[in-house]
Amino acid sequence: MKTIAVVVGSLRKGSLSMKLAKAMEAQAEGRFVFRYVELADLPMYNEDLWENVPASVTALKSAVESADAVLFVTPEYNRSIPPVVKNAIDWGSRPYGKSSWNGKPGGVIGMSPGAIGAATAIAHLRSVLVTLDVVLMGQPEVYFSYRPDTLDADGRFASPDTAAFFETYLKRFDTWIARTMQPKADTQPDND
Ligand code: FNR
To answer: 3-class DSSP state for residue 151?
Structure first.
């Protein structure tokens, strides 16, 4: 079974992004293990903190490095990436030459209760992740418009069409990971 480090771009209890991630997790049962990366305890990025590395940073880097792939499920904030997501990406990208993201197969899911499903945030997120050599799956793109009836009482996708769409996504992600997984000891390119 493949392990996925899941970055959910919202800290609030009632997060729709988390509900969407959990519905995907339920559908992926038996194929993927979702490990949710803890973002709430990460301090804002500060280079000085490397002198005494916060446990939350070590946990983030180890969660990403030990996973077979990374999956971002995020809302859009003011047409861009929520700061908790960028902060996690920045911490994971350092120290220089020791990025945790390098070569990881990745997927990005945008979610919004609005009409255009976080498309702009996802465009920004893609551009950041590609710079860090995350090997991003291009298709299917997911700009999900979350509606009150998206999930059933058990937190699963209520509509067969939505379930079928995410089934396609999960199957393609599985194939994508198998195709792009790299040996864990792969060398790092320089990045800044
Ligand atoms: C938003 N929201 C939002 N939605 C959107 O589609 N495009 C946007 O640019 C923004 N901008 C934005 C900025 C800020 C600061 C907040 C708090 C919210 C609405 C957002 O998509 C909505 O609140 C989601 O439900 C947030 O995701 P979670 O917390 O439910 O996962």
So the answer is: strand
